[in-house]
Amino acid sequence: MDIHRCRFVPYPTSAINAVAFSHSSFPKKKTLSKHVQVRLAIGRANGDIEIWNPLHGVWHQETVIPGGKDRSIDSLVWVTEADEETSDGNTILGKSRLFSIGYTTAITEWDLEKSKPKKHASGQHGAIWSLGAQPPVLGKNDAMLPGARKLVAGTVDGNLLIYSTEDDDLCFVKSLAKTPLKNTKIVSIAFQTRNVVVVGCNNSTIGVYDMRNGALLRKMNLGSGIPGGPKDIIVWSLKCLPRGDIVSGDSTGQVCIWDGKTYTQAQRIQGHKQDVLCLVVSADGSQIFSGGMDRRTALYEPKPGQAGRWSKVYHRRYHSHDVKTMAAFEGTGLSVVVSGGQDTCPVVIPLRSAGKEFHRTLSHLPQQTNLQSAPKARFVLSWWGNELRIWHLLHAARKLLDGETSGEDIRKNRKLLARILVQGESSITDAAISEDGRLLVASTATDIKVFQLDRDADFGADQLHIKKVDVVTANRGATAVGISPDQRWICWVEEGTKVMIAHVTASDSKVGTLCTISAPQKLRRLKRNVLKSLLLGGLGSYDRKITQLAFSPDSKVLSVADLAGYIDTWLLRDADEPKNGTNGSAGDEASDASLADSSSGSSEDEDDDNASERWRPNRAGVHLPKLEAAPVVLTFCPGLPQETGDHTLLVITATKDVLLFNPIRGALSDWSRKNPSRKLPEQFRGTRDVVKGVVWQGPRAWVYGVSFLYMLDFCQDLPELPAADSQKKGMKRKRNDFGSGAGGKINKENPLAPQVIRAATGPDGAEWVDMEMVDADDQKSVGASSAFEEEDDDTDGGELQRLRHDQAPSSGDDESKGSEKPNCWHTYQYRPILGIVPLASEKTMSKRKRAAAAAAGEIPPLEVALVERPAWELDMPPRLFGDGEWER
User: What is the pTM of this model?
Assistant: First the structure.
């Protein structure tokens, strides 16, 4: 494989301003129901909101809700309602709703399924600087009881506001109180009890208010600022311990403990050398974490034998810049603190096992890569915000590797052909470009844009003439888009769950080739047996959100997959096939009642010019199992031997299950029956990062993540497990080995190893520099801990077991036996990887030659562009605190 190693594609990731878990903790529950949907929301300075699924330590970024012009997410709050028992004995999980502020006068509720705002609410007040959610009503054993929860907001002009979330609504209720002093800003909020709210201000004061009547119960003063600094102290963060004591972090770098009964200061701890920006406390009140401008994350614990007294245990530098926000979660299999700041990378820190496990730094890059290519034209398409860029890679990578071009030519091997700005205030959600580089589709939350790209002969081969193509979208936008390989179809996903497809017609005219797009057709998804108790509560139908979309190489099969693990496929009916015809495959006996809707949702289904070519659901898809985790890769295999009219679909899940399906027959392929996921290489199963994408080279799949590149050859079986491992077959599945959900365990010999050490440089060792230790992701000790070492017979659920054993593998000798070709390969040389896209070589083989080469077992050449976006190349403000300190 020839690789263009590129960094010219910009992707300006923004700072993390807010993090919040959908549930605070489940410390008293021995087991956590699999139906409880715990999610982490991360808000960024550019208005993006990321939704992460912890997955017991896998940390899968499920969704990115893009921001827009002049938008920012500065605080996030989840409101989870109480569970409801139904008359038939089922439990409807309490709804989880996400709210945000952005230093404006409005509070926004977000629709996770549709990836756009659901409601806005505002009042006659100043910009909101802080936001908090009223605690729920608790019964026996801390069980949540029904009761409306209010939002409390603090403004830049000193107002304390109440917003109601009752009856699934969001509205301004009243102004609860106003600080008496001018130029007072409420910058932090915490709840001592359900009816007592504590607010921190920028004038060295902390106020305690009664929510029922707005009365000021007590005003606490921190005194004057440090000598030579500002006169007033800013109370950046507030938290309350379970027994009622109050914890504050301020601009002097101090963490203060306040008695919850007398509202007097009990203790001051100088935990930081700069402002303390964020705090979290454990569910049992035995640990306090703080983060600040000095990049430190500090841990505090009670002093043994001294009631009410705390001491600083240690501090670390997990971040390379300010630590702006923190959130904690405790439950079975997961006990972590997640922090974020200016360096754009979320950091997962062990909470219950603090000091005993490594931290883990998550990627600052998106899970769904913002990168596509037009291989035949050697174009690379990238996008961020509302801008698209099209690059042209001039020379083949082989010429560069062979030294046929000079160093100067290497830098000039790329050319920026076009920059397209999509009008509107919403950012681009997804984009796609055709294989020949002549059709471009981009979507936002409110619109879909289609462009026709033509090489302009009058201005040279590297000049693009861009024409906009009209498309009927009803101004609903899309969350995902795709173009078929034959460029006759474009597909998009509306509102997260509705699959739409439209026919593209190219016609010659005096001004050149013109593209027209027909009215879209809504494709019907198969019904799934999803409990109504799940759809009515929790995150609702968020799990049915479609995140993966793929066309087959011959453009006759379309497949999508959602977060719940369901796969839907549609088949293109030939022109001479009757509309009620079948394909003769398994599952055709399924009735139309198996479809989600009886109508396609568009009146033009029977009347448009392409009525002879319609897409119909593949009813054999009901035999495809529900995957145990969300799929992160969905792609058809173009280079595998297959029967006429047959297709092979590769699916890789967030937990690194690799499965090959025959979607038309609704069955597993022979390769997947012979090679369960437990046989995958240890380096692949033990890698902590989630797979991002796949590039095909004949039967070889180049699988990549943010820190790795693997090759799997699907024409060869995986090596058999050692005898010791095969004896474990049938044993009960283990929980993951990620410990509390962060990194692996630290050596017993050095349980509190420093995260920063100092090293002498120069001939005399006179100059000392800080050397930050790598986190758990960089250790590559894949044998030490792996979340995917499941010890049952094939790491799959009951449906996959049925598919494996109900259909025996085909007989015959394996042609790959005795072959010297490797069946797998890996490297960690490239990181962090934004994406890898294929390019067509200058000498491209014809279809006949490719087929002959595949029949002979030859591997076709492959050229790709690999784009890296290291975090140290991001533009960040200068640090306010130096690097010359030895951290212990």
Answer: 0.88
